[in-house]
Each structure stands twice: as structure tokens, then as C-alpha cells.
Design a protein that fits this description.
The complex is a heterodimer of chains A (560) and B (135). Chain A folds into four domains: 1-191, Arp2/3 complex 21 kDa subunit ARPC3 (Orthogonal Bundle), CATH 1.10.1760; 194-326, no CATH class; 337-400; 404-560, 2-Layer Sandwich (Heat Shock Protein 90), CATH 3.30.565. Helices cover 66% and strands 8% of the residues of chain A. Chain A is built from 17 helices and seven strands. Chain A has helices at residues 2-13, 18-40, 53-64, 70-86, 92-116, 128-157, 164-191, 194-199, 202-228, 241-250, 252-272, 283-336, 338-364, 370-398, 410-427, 447-464, 518-528; strands at residues 405-408, 431-436, 443-446, 472-479, 483-489, 532-537, 543-550. The longest helix of chain A is centred in the middle third of the chain and has 54 residues, at 283-336. Chain B has 135 residues and is an alpha/beta fold. Chain B has one domain: Rossmann fold, CATH 3.40.50. Chain B has helices spanning 11-23, 34-43, 60-68, 85-93, 106-132; strands at residues 3-7, 27-31, 48-52, 76-80, 98-101. Chain B has a five-stranded parallel sheet, with helices on both faces. The relative contact order of chain B is 0.15. Classes of the chains: A alpha+beta (560), B alpha/beta (135). At the A-B interface, helix 13, helix 14 and helix 15 of A face helix 1 of B.
Chain lengths: 560, 135
């Protein structure tokens, strides 16, 4: 313990935190295990594995940490390298040579990538640009360049028995495959957020398990089936493809890289044991077929998952922006109503204060009638509840929440909106009339967003009537063929028929202070509820705006 | 005991205000709007009106103007839950005795009522003797 504490102390003095010390240890352990795995995947008598994951692991580690600490990764990898390689009775010169070529691949790959995606930018596989840079530079260019050095070292130490260019080729394919499988896997796992994983709904976990299970089972089945039908064995290569495509479409680059890694491990293990459709031919032929097949399947799948992820993210960002805009426009509308809202709170406050002070006078004059005191208290409580109700509705409208669909009674919605709008209408001298049809079906929607639409129509109506002597807002509800119609009719000047559609365009406004977003946002809210919103001018009788919403159960809420 | 009329469209508010005025030793009568008030005035004339500004139909401003046009105008105290400088200026210009914003502090309201009644009575006293002199 003392020595560990001492090492941490030393690390701190050298400007490293404890996390920066743990990471290299993880790298050392991973590097050691990757070496052992690589040896297990070696087809005798070739000195080069079908899949050599150690270099790719080193490369992934460099991509995840700051370039000024790369030396640390290489420093801890060296003892792991020696430990793993010397067990296999490889000559020391070759062992050190391989460390040089392995390190050079990782350094070339990470260096090239960091030229295009400079540190400290995170290397997430969430854009086509990042994926392209990674696949081209880290997974192809780095193995290509370092393979010449590696083959030269093998020749120099006399370890391998094959020609120079052949060695270059064998090592190149082995390391490209390792990089394509390992680098996205490590980066994907490093980018996983445990919180998001925990919060994911159970059906997502079930889907991921089903996809991964499918990949593993089909990959295993390939070897079993090859025994029965050797003639069609090559076609069996593609058996896991449906599940891999599924992972690319639904699980993102992280899930896809896990699926690819699973298929690769099973396939290579089977081939090394001389089973399945990849068996037969010389070890070199088997290795090459396997490598080319796995690379050809992995790269397009990875790119597909990245492109889909990029598109999904753009969609999410767009939705978030739309939600933000909706919220902002709601808050702006409420701030325009502040005078009316003050009225709506001051009325019950007046009732509370005057009742309480009346009681004080009665007590001071020793003129207390118990029944009257009871009435006073009852009135105070009622007024207090009314003020609380207004504040509750307001808070809900101010809150910025996720869209939440629930079953709603259209008339309750109207009543709730009126608690908030009442003050504004009263202070503007606008009278209201309600014609609410009984027995309307329930609707399904986001309470706050639908109230926002109704408030928007009410406020527009109020603005339109500002300079009219007669100011009457009529709110009508009636059952529709498959839903409910809510109408808001004003006694304003109306509008000319040719702007009936323009009113819903963003930034179109007829108000001097208006932004022109209210109706455009309202229409998109109603559309997201599967409904329609439109306006008609009734000439001198004013304007009418109608909302039609489907009855609950008529339509599943969409997530758009 | 002076009679004070309270005009407010919201029942909880007019009930609370009449209750307060009665507890403070006045006589008070509540009206929901202008029409009701002018009908009531015919049977018994109040000495002061506590008038809400925002009323459906005939609004407070219109009621105030109509009261001021009466042969013997009753002093009017405007009360509002939506206080604006513009409304204050308009009401005072139209002859309101006071303009108070809700919620109302009892002393402020009671003082305003006494002052308005006192001033009106003083005004009447000045006028009445001159009318009565011939007799």
C-alpha cells in the first residue's frame, strides 16, 4: 500500500492525477492479454497472427489520451510486451523489434488522426468525418506504413521463413482487420455513458441482447452447418449479416462494433481450429480469405451505423431546438400577459386580506359572531386555493419539460386555460362566451403544449379586438367525425382571405411588436398531435380559428 | 352610519370588501356591475362608491363618468387589481376621489372613504347653504 501511495504521490508531483496512472495500468494489462489472444490466433507455421489485437489496442489507448502522455502508454506496454512474448520463446531481438514496429503503428495511426481531429477533441464515432479519418488513417495507413518496418525486422532477425513483400502483406491484412475490429470497439466502449445505459428502457436492452445473441448464434451455426453442406459453405459466411445490419440500424456504432467483434472472434477461432467454411487450403489462404471477408463486412457496416447515428443525432438536435423554441415562445407569451396574471392573483389576495382584516376589526370590537368567523375563514381558504391554482397552472406553463402525452378532457383543458387567460381578458375589457358541447370524447396530447396553442389563439383574438368597441371572445367546442373541434371566435376586424395561410408562416406578423412565431409554432404543435389548425375570417364579424384534434385512441402519438 | 356601495364583478372580492366595511362600522352594499348599481342608487343613494375598474359590460371608467354626470355625484374610490399609471391618471382626471390598487390595506381604504365622504359633505355644505339662503 505504501508503495502505491508513494507512486501516486510521485505521479502528483509529476503533474499526473491518479486516473492518469490507472489508465496506463489498464493499457498494460490489456496489451498483455491482446498478445496472448494474438498468439492463439496464429496459424502455424506463419509467424503472424490472423488477428493481432495488441497494436490496435495500443493505438486505441493513444487516441483516448493526451499526446503529451503517449510516452507513458508505451512505457507501460513494454514490460507487458516482454512478459507476453518471452513466454513464447521468441528471440529477444525479435521481441524488441516487434515492440518497435507495434509502437510505430500506434504512433503513426494516432499521430495522423490527431492531425485531422486535434486533441482534446473527443474521437467519437458519431460523424462520417471522424469515422472516415479513423478508418483511413488509423486502420489502413498506419498498418500499411508500419508493416514495411515490421517485415524488415522479421527478415533481419531471421525469424520468418517467407519473402519480404509477402510478410508485408500478411502483416498488413492482419493489422488492418485488428484495427477495424478493435479501435471502434474501444472508442465505442469508452464513449458509453453508464447513466444513459441505466436509463435506457428495458426493451432497448432486450433488443441489444437479441441482436448480439443473433450474431453469436449465427456465427456459431456457420461452423456447424459447414459440416453438413460443404458445397455451399462459402455462402454461409453471410449468415450473421441480417443481425449485423440490425445492429448498424438500431444500436449505433458502439453496438455495431461489439457485434462485429463477436462475429470476428468466433469466426477466427473456428478457422484456426480448422472448422467451418473457412477451413481448407493453406493456412495463408485461409487467413487471407478470412481477413478480406471480415474487413469487407465490417467497414461498410461501421460506416452505415455512423451515418445513421449522425442522422439520428441531427434529428434529435432539431427536435431539441424546436422544443426550446416552443418553450421560449410560451414564456414570451406569458410575459406579455404579466399584467393580467397580476390581476388574476391580486383578486384572491384582496379577498384574503380584506376578509382577514374584517376579522381583526370584529375581534377588536369584541363583536365576534362564530358563524361569521367561520364564513370568513372559509372564504379565505377558497381564495387561497384559487391563487394557488393560478400559480400551479403558470408553473406548468413556464416549465421546460419533455413532451408528455396523456388523456385529456377538452373542457378541462379550456377551463385551465381560462384560469390563466382570465386576468388578461378582464383587464382588456374582453367579455367571454362559452358554447361547450356536452359529452365530448377525450383527446390525447401534451397538456402544456395544447394550452399554449389555445392561449396563443386567445391572445391573438384579444389583440385583434383591442381597438374595437365591442370585444367578445367566443369559445366553442363540438364533436367532430373522429375527434373534437375547439374554436375561438373574436369580434375583431378579421383578415383578408389571401393571408389566411400566410398567418401560419414563421416570422409573418400583423402586430407591431410581434415576432410572428406564435401561430407557426401552434400549427406544428397541433400537427404533432395529429390534428389541424386553421383560421377563417368572417368578414366584419371577426376572425375564427379552429383546432381539430383526434379523439384518444384514434392515433398513436408520434415522437416527431 | 354612512352607506358605502361596493361594485366588483367577483363575488369573493365584493363579499370580503363589504364584510370589512361593515366590521369597521359602516353600512355596505354590494353590486356585481354597473346596471345593478344604478338600479340600486335609485332606491337608496350611497355616500361613497368603491368601484372596481375592470368589469364586464359597462367598465369602471364608464360607471365613474356616469356617476360624475349625476346631479349630485357620489364620491368614487377606484380599486384595481391591474394598476397602471395610465388608468390612474385617467380615473383621477375623470373625477375619482382616490385610486387604490388591490390588495387593499384596510386603513388606506377606510381613510380614503372617510376623506371622500368628508370632502363631499363639506362641498355640499358649501353649496347647500347658498341654496337654502332664500328660505
Amino acid at each position: 500500500m505504501k508503495s502505491l501511495a508513494g507512486a501516486l504521490q510521485w505521479g502528483k508531483r509529476a503533474g499526473l492525477d491518479s486516473r492518469a496512472l490507472v489508465a496506463p495500468l489498464v493499457v498494460a494489462l490489456g496489451y498483455y492479454l491482446a498478445n496472448r489472444l494474438g498468439f492463439a490466433f496464429t496459424l502455424e507455421p506463419y509467424p503472424i497472427s490472423v488477428l493481432w489485437p495488441a497494436n490496435a489496442l495500443l493505438l486505441s489507448a493513444l487516441l483516448l489520451i493526451a499526446p503529451r502522455r503517449w510516452w507513458l502508454v508505451l512505457a507501460v506496454a513494454l514490460p507487458a510486451h516482454l512478459l507476453a512474448q518471452l513466454q513464447n520463446e521468441v528471440p529477444l531481438a525479435m521481441v524488441l523489434g516487434w515492440f518497435a514496429s507495434n509502437s510505430s503503428e500506434a504512433l503513426i495511426g494516432a499521430g495522423l488522426v490527431r492531425l485531422f481531429v486535434p486533441w482534446p477533441q473527443r474521437l467519437r464515432l458519431d460523424s462520417f468525418h471522424n469515422a472516415g479519418v479513423l478508418l483511413l488513417l488509423a486502420c489502413v495507413a498506419a498498418p500499411f506504413l508500419s508493416s514495411f518496418l515490421d517485415a524488415a525486422l522479421v527478415r533481419l532477425t531471421g525469424w520468418g521463413q517467407v519473402g519480404y513483400l509477402q510478410l508485408v502483406q500478411v502483416r498488413f491484412f492482419s493489422n488492418v482487420l485488428a484495427s477495424v475490429v478493435i479501435v471502434p470497439l474501444v472508442l465505442g466502449l469508452a464513449a458509453l455513458e453508464p447513466r444513459r445505459l441505466r436509463e435506457a428502457p428495458p426493451e432497448r436492452h432486450a433488443e441489444a441482447a437479441a441482436v448480439l445473441g443473433g450474431v453469436i448464434l449465427t456465427s456459431l451455426a456457420v461452423f456447424a452447418m459447414a459440416h453438413f453442406d460443404p458445397a455451399h459453405a462459402p455462402a454461409l459466411y453471410y449468415a450473421p449479416l441480417p443481425f449485423l445490419l440490425w445492429s448498424a440500424v438500431r444500436l449505433g456504432p458502439s453496438g455495431t462494433s461489439v457485434a462485429i467483434a463477436a462475429m470476428t472472434l468466433i469466426t477466427i477461432r473456428g478457422a484456426v481450429q480448422g472448422e467451418g467454411p473457412f477451413a481448407g487450403g493453406t493456412p495463408e489462404q485461409i487467413a487471407r480469405t478470412l481477413q478480406i471477408f471480415l474487413i469487407a463486412v465490417s467497414v461498410p457496416l461501421l460506416l452505415l451505423s455512423v451515418v445513421l447515428e449522425e442522422r439520428a443525432r441531427a434529428g434529435r438536435e432539431l427536435r431539441a431546438q424546436r422544443e426550446q423554441l416552443t418553450h421560449l415562445s410560451r414564456v414570451a407569451m406569458l410575459s406579455d400577459m404579466s399584467g393580467g396574471l397580476a390581476h388574476e392573483l391580486n383578486q384572491p389576495l384582496t379577498a384574503i386580506l380584506s376578509n382577514a382584516q374584517a376579522a381583526q376589526h370584529l375581534l377588536a370590537n369584541r363583536n365576534v359572531d362564530e358563524a361569521e368567523l367561520g364564513e370568513i375563514l372559509r372564504d379565505i381558504i377558497a381564495a387561497d386555493q384559487r391563487a394557488g391554482d393560478v400559480i400551479r397552472r403558470l408553473r406548468a406553463l413556464f416549465r421546460r419539460g419533455e413532451t408528455a402525452f396523456e388523456r385529456l378532457d377538452p373542457h378541462e383543458l379550456v377551463r385551465e386555460v381560462m384560469t390563466v387567460a382570465h386576468g388578461d381578458l378582464v383587464t382588456r375589457g374582453i367579455e367571454t362566451a362559452f358554447e361547450l358541447e356536452a359529452g365530448l370524447p377525450a383527446i390525447e396530447g401534451d397538456r402544456v403544449q395544447l394550452q399554449q396553442v389555445m392561449l396563443n389563439l386567445i391572445m391573438n383574438a384579444a389583440d385583434a379586438m383591442a381597438s374595437r368597441p365591442e370585444r367578445l371572445l367566443r369559445v366553442l367546442t363540438r364533436a367532430e367525425a373522429h375527434g373534437v373541434q375547439l374554436s375561438f371566435l373574436d369580434s375583431g376586424p378579421g383578415f383578408s382571405a389571401d393571408i389566411a395561410e400566410k398567418l401560419f408562416e414563421p416570422f409573418y406578423t400583423t402586430k407591431p411588436q410581434g415576432l410572428g412565431l406564435g401561430l407557426s409554432i401552434s400549427r406544428s404543435i397541433v400537427a404533432a398531435h395529429g390534428g389541424r389548425l386553421w383560421g377563417r375570417s368572417n368578414g366584419r364579424a371577426g376572425a375564427a380559428f379552429h383546432i381539430v384534434l383526434p379523439a384518444a385512441g384514434r392515433r398513436a402519438p408520434d415522437d416527431g | 352610519m354612512p352607506l358605502v356601495a361596493v361594485v366588483d364583478d367577483e363575488k369573493p372580492v365584493r363579499t370580503a370588501l363589504t364584510r370589512l366595511l361593515r366590521a369597521a362600522g359602516m353600512e355596505a352594499e354590494a353590486f356585481a356591475g354597473g346596471a345593478e348599481f344604478f338600479e340600486g342608487v335609485q332606491s337608496r343613494r350611497p355616500e361613497c362608491v368603491v368601484l372596481d375598474l375592470h368589469l364586464p359590460g359597462m367598465d369602471g371608467q364608464q360607471i365613474l363618468e356616469r356617476i360624475r354626470r349625476m346631479a349630485e355625484p357620489v364620491p368614487v374610490i377606484i380599486v384595481t387589481a391591474h394598476d397602471t399609471d395610465e388608468a390612474r391618471a385617467r380615473c383621477l382626471a375623470a373625477g375619482a376621489a382616490a385610486y387604490l390598487s388591490k390588495p387593499l390595506d384596510d386603513r388606506l381604504l377606510l381613510n380614503a372613504i372617510s376623506a371622500a365622504i368628508g370632502k363631499a359633505a363639506g362641498g355640499r355644505k358649501q353649496i347647500l347653504p347658498s341654496k337654502e339662503t332664500p328660505s
